[in-house]
Design a protein that fits this description.
Oligomer: single chain
Helix content: over 70%
Number of helices: 14
Largest sheet: 2 strands, antiparallel
Structural class: mainly alpha
Shape: globular
Radius of gyration: 20 Å
Length: 321
């Protein structure tokens, strides 16, 4: 029985940008729900799984990139893609925080610019970028292991991730484990990229075996955390998100039509991710939910168009130097 065949992986490559658009919309809905005070709404559970989809698609794309470039060039390309626009938007956010929220520049702003505030302070404002930079750092090594050991690499990495999650709960803040849970979708993306590159078929028995191993390890993890009184019940959903993510991506591959609007959102997902939360913060004083929603959407669209244009110009300038 074959579940992830060459046709499926090819369609994933073809629809990757549209699926990123879907994931970005889910993340935005998630943050809107937070601003509206719907923290315990099912929308929250469905919304933040968009982050898992992002990491999966990022792993899939980075797996291809590593196969075409040396580690040095891979790192350089990632830095060129992310860091310039990240710096611009973060500096503007610092200024915006001062003007609109009366927040003075502090040490955390410096750490945020250095892409380490998530690790030093548990800062969640741009944690996806900081986590991604760490994942990118590890990617060439993981792909080398996959090339050499194949699916056995999964059996090695999953216990390592589970142990890392367990020990991360002893840190001074508990947000690191949010990143570690999301490392699983990224790893799955790398495996899918390698399967596509090898034109091989990912057999269902391997997928089921890997899924069973993952669930068993997560069960042991949750029991150990509960025994040590470290279990955070609100984070239990992250244990099943990778499985739900696979189902959602597979459904998108088969049923999501090509759509220019979703493609554009996926193409601008970096700018959209960096811009939408500061905008929501600046407009959070608007009491009327409908007005807040309308103003936020308009401001996000305008800012994303502007930042995407700036990012394109910077990319041309950097690549021609």
């Amino acid at each position: 029985m074959q579940l992830m065949n060459n046709s499926t992986l090819y369609n994933l490559s073809e629809k990757r940008t549209e699926i990123m658009g879907v994931a970005m919309l889910m993340v935005i809905v998630y943050h809107f729900a937070l601003n509206f005070g719907f923290y315990h709404s099912p929308i929250i559970v469905r919304g933040d799984i968009g982050v898992d989809i992002f990491f999966f698609l990022s792993g899939f794309g980075c797996g291809f990139s590593v196969s075409k470039h040396s580690p040095k060039d891979f790192y350089a390309n990632r830095i060129k893609r992310i860091v310039p626009i990240y710096f611009i938007i973060e500096i503007l956010s610092i200024l915006g925080n001062y003007v609109f929220l009366d927040q003075h520049v502090g040490a955390i702003d410096v750490y945020r610019l250095l892409c380490i505030s998530f690790f030093t302070h548990g800062d969640l404002s741009v944690w996806y970028i900081h986590a991604s930079m760490l994942f990118y750092l590890l990617t060439p090594f993981i792909m080398a292991m996959i090339n050499k050991l194949g699916f056995k690499t999964f059996y090695f990495l999953m216990p390592c991730v589970v142990l890392a999650i367990f020990f991360s709960t002893y840190l001074h803040h508990s947000n690191i484990n949010l990143m570690l849970y999301r490392f699983v979708p990224y790893i799955i993306g790398l495996f899918c990229a390698q399967a596509a590159l090898d034109r091989s078929i990912v057999k269902t028995r391997k997928i089921i075996g890997g899924g069973i191993l993952y669930l068993l390890l997560m069960l042991v993890l949750q029991i150990a955390l509960k025994k040590q009184e470290l279990l955070i019940h609100n984070q239990l959903r992250y244990t099943i998100y990778p499985l739900l993510m696979i189902v959602m991506v597979y459904s998108c591959i088969n049923y999501l039509p090509k759509n220019k609007y979703l493609f554009w959102i996926g193409l601008c997902s970096l700018e959209c991710y960096l811009a939408h939360q500061p905008i929501m913060n600046y407009l959070s004083n608007i009491q009327n939910n409908i007005l807040f929603f309308a103003c936020s959407i308009i401001a996000i669209i305008v800012s994303v168009i502007f930042f995407h244009y700036i990012n394109k110009k910077m990319s041309i300038f950097i690549n021609h130097k």
